[in-house]
Amino acid sequence: MRPDDPMDGRRLIPLDDELPGDADLSALEAELSAAGSRARRGAPASPTPAFAAALRDRLVAAYGDGAGATFGGAVAGHAGNGSVAWPLAGGAAGGAGTAAAGRAGVPASSSSRARGLDDPRRRPLPTGPVDHAPAPLTIRTARRTPTILPAPRWTILAAAAALIVAVVGLNGGLLIDAPAVSRVATATGADLVRDGATSELVAGAELRVGDGIRVADGGAAALQIGENRVRLAGGADVRLTRLDRTRIAIDQVAGRAWHRVVLPNGGRYVVTTGDVTWTALGTAFDLDRSGADAAGGDVVRELSVEHGVVVEGPGLRVTVDEGRGATVRLDDAPTVETAVVGAAIAAADPWIRRNAAADGADGLPLGMLAGIELAVATANPTANVTPRPTGTPEPTEAPVATPVPTTAPTAAPTPAPTAKPTPKPTPKPTPQPTLGTMGLALLACPGGVVIDWSVPEMAAFDHVQVLRGTSAEIPAVYPPSGGVVAIGGGYTADPAKTEGYDPTDGGASVWYRAVAFDAADKAIAMSAVSGATTVAAGALGALGATPGATGEIAFSWTAFAGTADCFTFYKLVGSIDDPTPSYLEGADLAFAIGEQAATGSTIAGLQSGKTLYWRLQAIRATSLGKFVVAQTDVVQATVP
Predict the structure, then answer these.
(1) How many alpha carbons fall within 13 Å on the CB side of residue 240?
(2) Which residue has the higher pLDDT, 93 or 133?
(3) Contact at 8 Å (CB) between 566 and 629?
(4) For 99-117, what is each residue's pLDDT tens digit?
(5) What is the DSSP letter of 446?
(6) Considering only CA atoms, which of 204, 203, 223 is closest in space to residue 212?
(7) CA dist list (Å): 418 to 412, 422, 424, 430
(8) Residue range 23-35, pLDDT digits in tens
(9) Lowest mean pLDDT: which of 148-157, 208-217, 297-306?
(10) Reduced to 3 states, what is the DSSP secondary structure of residue 336?
(11) Strand 625-631 relative to strand 538-539: parallel, antiparallel, unpaired?
(12) Given the DSSP bridges, would you call strands 197-200 and 335-340 parallel, antiparallel or unpaired?
């Protein structure tokens, strides 16, 4: 609703000296309800000051000066909550004065019935001698529908007006980018810490960003964070730091947690332990942190159950593949050790066994534990077999007295079946285990997709090639065909380089698979197929170039506002003859600025008198190359 729109879409006959009737009030109520509905649907994003002032003016003007006090009390209470506070006086006389002052400079109310009130000037009463004889007054009474609302309806309208401004003031983008729905699945002996207050953690409670969950020794809790599940053992202490649909971040302060991850397209799931982060490349991993107060120091132990996990910290970056474990000491300079963990050894841990069994019961993949019997053995099967032959004496004697058939059948069947069935099943299972498992994680940035993978330790490894397709059907073969292509930023013969890139345009759906090949281009390991929706490179607007002293230019720009995961550094590039200079395609000059929040830099020592084309670009670098995530317009400037 714009400030100059009619209140109810109709043209009313001007009746300057008459108060509004119920029809007008009903129309006003209808309009307020409609505005509220539009606001709840997410548009418009925020009210302008002119809208707020005009709405207040129209409401007060439509019902006379006495409404100022009522509206003042009901509406001003919303100031500071994202809505507009209207300064109205507390009394009727004060309200009229404030209303008149507030209308100065504001467009007149579009309600024709209120136009007389929009004029701040007062009509003077007649003064001076009366030159006619006073006439006798005749009183005439007649029924008339009341035109002034009783107090309760004034209050309702005032509250509705305040509510509309507050609701319209909500950012529509927040309604669209809602956080992941997060709730407590089960809880026993656990507390919820929110805004400094501690309360009992109960099943079904909603979880928010900033919440802390502390589990007592002997207690347990299970959290449902979007599609992800976190099971906490006794003594666990975690804090939820980010709960977006595509970004989940958890600070694991102490204790043990089983993380079952469902990565959305281009999403990330990160657990922080001190200065070290654990980024999921797949679906399940176990993390146990002793905590800062532990006697042996703060130590984190991890097991990659399904796919891999990337460990990053000061001076270290390691991918822990499926079936391997990592131990990190959180000192001033964290150290990491990784080792292969056998499936039988992992399944011997009751915590691992219990969580894997629960996931298997839900039909979830078990990675390294697939094929392991996870059910707890009981004495029931043996008890069933023993009591079965109740009449023990009879069956016992029967087999004892039957030595005759024993000699005859033994010789005949032995030679025939033994030789033939043995060679047949042997060759079939052999090719299955040779194909290793790789993890894959995608980050859709403006201008390109960052691709992170894990490489298994295999003697036949020669190189990794990431394949891209237009659907989830990507065969692990080379050369690719059928619409599948090998991307340049996804090839490496170095197993230590596990982060590539793929420059893309925006608005397309793409799928990727990482494949490890031997020297003959035969696949020896592969990841599952993962998809992402691409985003176009961002525009940073104009680049300011102000000449200074000799050989010096001061540049200014708008900082890149995207996520820090998509930013590595800025490059200010200049070219003498290329009107579209780019850092990636070569430029005559290039200057690096490392701070994402930077909005300006002065470059000195330039060759005086040279005229160059200048541009600033935000760059995302990977271990295999770089791409542009955002850039400014090109400006031509001469060096003083």
Answers:
(1) 30
(2) 133
(3) yes
(4) 344 444 444 444 333 334 3
(5) B
(6) 223
(7) 12, 7, 12, 22
(8) 666 666 677 767 6
(9) 148-157
(10) strand
(11) parallel
(12) unpaired
